Amino acid sequence: MIKPIVVSGIRPTGYLHLGNYYGAVRNFLRMQEDYNCYFFIADIHSLTTHPTPENLQAGVKQVLAEYLACGIDPEKSTIFIQSDVPEVCELYTFLNMNAYLGELERTTSFKEKARKQPENVNAGLLTYPVLMAADIIIHKAEFVPVGKDQEQNLEMARKFAGRFNRMYKQEVFPIPRPFTFDGGDMIKVPGLDGSGKMGKSEGNGVFLYEDPKEIRKKVMRAVTDAGPTEPNSKKTEPVENLFTLLKIVSTPDVVDHFEKAYNSCEIRYGDLKKQLAEDIIAVTAPIRERILEILKDDAYLAQVARIGAEKARESAVRTLQEVKEVIGFKRLF
Ligand code: TYM
């Protein structure tokens, strides 16, 4: 039986947090059984923020170890480093010829990054969705498991794939679709600071690699409000976010208990936070143990990356060859 192809990646710009885990990695774990999965470390994408060579290398190693520690199995999935598959840059160049300035400038992530780092609005940031499209379609992916924040980038990938097919009047690329854990909406894991999504550099994240003591401290410091004053009142954003996190990591009866306490104005946020911290630790502590173990084993990490690169290149070379023929690059001599 031919398994549908899946592609997804994570930038090596820091430790993985609960947003990465529940938005992406948990889907990877579920998909690797029944799909032909390519999971990679997006080191070329991470260059948009100019890491030092040391930080880049450390970041790649960390994400690789974290993928493995979470349970991504190199026997079942292809795990690789983006820059080990240079064909993706060639496809990126071709796709850039049909990516328009207006549509790239309008993407939310570009506008946001340009606002956050006005001193470094580079062309790589602008064409970020094009490289991401190349990552996806070079393996002819049908599914892309990502969190809500990547929705627009995925939409661009769909657009570029369809545009290429139409331009050359051939169905070279499938149109990739998002994949979510329960078939519902793509998810957004909130941070602990009261607003917005959990991020690597937002200072609002809980990391898989983090010490349980540190996690307890962080969660206890999470932003809340003065508490409900009327039964069944609407929750403020910081409190809603804590409940969202609780729904993600805790059992339904725990969520139910705190919902009832909130609705009857008897809630003590300290109790909710204590429970939330322990339930987060129950998820992260075993992963942390494995990360520590795997990080010690450079030979194993190198072997996984080498085998992954070989498998990913095989697929990428095949597609690129087809693409070049379709475009009209014929050998004359
Ligand atoms: P990155 O490194 O920012 O994030 C990696 C994955 O984690 C998800 N994620 C979240 N999901 C829910 N809630 C959050 N708070 C949260 N924070 C992060 C992201 O949605 C993503 O799935 N552009 C990508 C990397 C990439 C890629 C690709 C992904 C490059 N090429 C091709 C898929 C396919 C990125 O920067 O992810």
Report strand order across the widest sheet: 1-2-3
How many β-strands, per DSSP? 5
The main sheet comes to:
3 strands, parallel
Given the helix and strand composition, which structural class is it?
mainly alpha
- Tell me roughly what share of residues is in helical segments: 40-55%
Q: Regions with pLDDT < 50 over 5+ consecutive residues? A: none
Based on Cα principal axes, name the global outline: globular
What does this structure look like?
The protein is mainly alpha-helical. The chain is built from 13 helices and five strands. It has two domains: 5-188 and 298-327, Rossmann fold (3-Layer(aba) Sandwich); 212-292, Orthogonal Bundle (Tyrosyl-Transfer RNA Synthetase). The protein has a three-stranded parallel beta sheet. A two-stranded parallel ribbon has the order 4-5. Helix 2 links the parallel strand 2 and strand 3 (78-81). Helix 2 crosses helix 12 and helix 3 runs parallel beside helix 13 (298-327). The longest helix has 30 residues, at 298-327. The radius of gyration is 21 Å and the shape is globular. Bound molecules: tryptophanyl-5'AMP. Tryptophanyl-5'AMP is lined by residues 7-11, 19-20, 23-24, 42, 45, 132, 135-136, 144, 146-150, 153, 187-189, 197-198.
Show the helix and strand layout.
Blueprint: E1 5-10, H1 18-31, E2 36-41, H2 53-70, E3 78-81, H3 87-96, H4 101-105, H5 108-116, H6 123-126, H7 128-137, E4 143-144, H8 151-168, E5 177-178, H9 212-220, H10 237-249, H11 252-263, H12 269-295, H13 298-327
Parallel strand pairs: 1-2, 2-3, 4-5
The structure holds tryptophanyl-5'AMP.
The site of tryptophanyl-5'AMP (TYM) has 26 residues, from strand 1, helix 1 and helix 7.
